[in-house]
Amino acid sequence: MTQKFGIVADAKELESGQILSPKFNKDGLVTAVVTDYKSGELLMVAHMNDTALQKTLETGQTWLWSRSRQSLWLKGESSGSIQNVVEARLDCDQDAIWLKVKRQKAEDTCHTGRKSCFYRRIVTKDGDFRLEFAE
Amino acid sequence: MTQKFGIVADAKELESGQILSPKFNKDGLVTAVVTDYKSGELLMVAHMNDTALQKTLETGQTWLWSRSRQSLWLKGESSGSIQNVVEARLDCDQDAIWLKVKRQKAEDTCHTGRKSCFYRRIVTKDGDFRLEFAE
């Protein structure tokens, strides 16, 4: 796979230009934020290395880098919850990617068997923090 | 400030319990994803250390950790774009926080003077990637 990213060092050009030049961190990763293309719900936050990002853009399906397994990972490969990318955006300094996706099996988005990884809200009770199930 | 987070090591308990036990990375940070409470639009992706997270939950305004400046940062302190947290959620393995916020000055959310940091989409043209301004 030929690497297709540009290399832009100038901060202004990174922010205002049209060249995709992802700012991978010292582990070679950018943050990937995945939302539902229709509802806008936040589904998951994960990571991508250069290959995962390029495969996502070329195939139109979400590819990630698993930090725990240290391997590439086609989201939904085992669960069937494949994500088709409707739109990809990136942020000002090019270190975070936003994927708006259409899911083939929404109920298995989280490995816990939920529609989103963000199923708990943080609440404060008597000055202490607790988690409350939102769905 | 007394540290108010629990320490849960068991993966199942982290995912299914009610104890807030953030999994800070080796730099002491969790990812913070900020969306508009009403439109659901993704506004920014940033980082929080333990103090930033605790201050956010206690004050109801978005506090972050600036990696470039290596300092705590009240979002909007200089721009006026203070964010009031309507709801805070966290993900299954407790290393990402989702803030739904109401902004005091929406037009200055991004330091580039935009309503969101995600103002460019990635498009493919003749097999190459380009950035296109979405707004």
Topology:
The structure is a homodimer of 135-residue chains.
Chain A (H helix, E strand, L loop, with lengths): L10 H6 L13 E7 L5 E7 L1 H10 L3 E4 L4 E4 L8 E8 L5 E8 L16 E6 L2 E6 L2
Parallel strand pairs in A: 1-6
Antiparallel strand pairs in A: 1-2, 3-4, 5-6, 7-8
Explain this structure.
The structure is a homodimer of 135-residue chains. With 135 residues, chain A is mainly β. Helix content of chain A is 12%, strand content 37%. Chain A contains two helices and eight strands. In chain A, the strands form three sheets. Chain A has a four-stranded mixed beta sheet with strand order 2-1-6-5. A two-stranded antiparallel sheet of chain A has the order 3-4. In chain A, a hairpin with a 4-residue loop joins β3 and β4. The longest helix of chain A is centred in the middle third of the chain and has 10 residues, at 50-59. The radius of gyration of chain A is 16 Å and the shape is globular. The mean pLDDT of chain A is 95. At the A-B interface, β1, β2, β5, β6 and β7 of A face β1, β2, β5, β6 and β7 of B. β7 (120-125) of chain A pairs antiparallel with β5 of chain B.
Keywords:
mainly beta; 4-stranded mixed β-sheet; 2 helices; homodimer
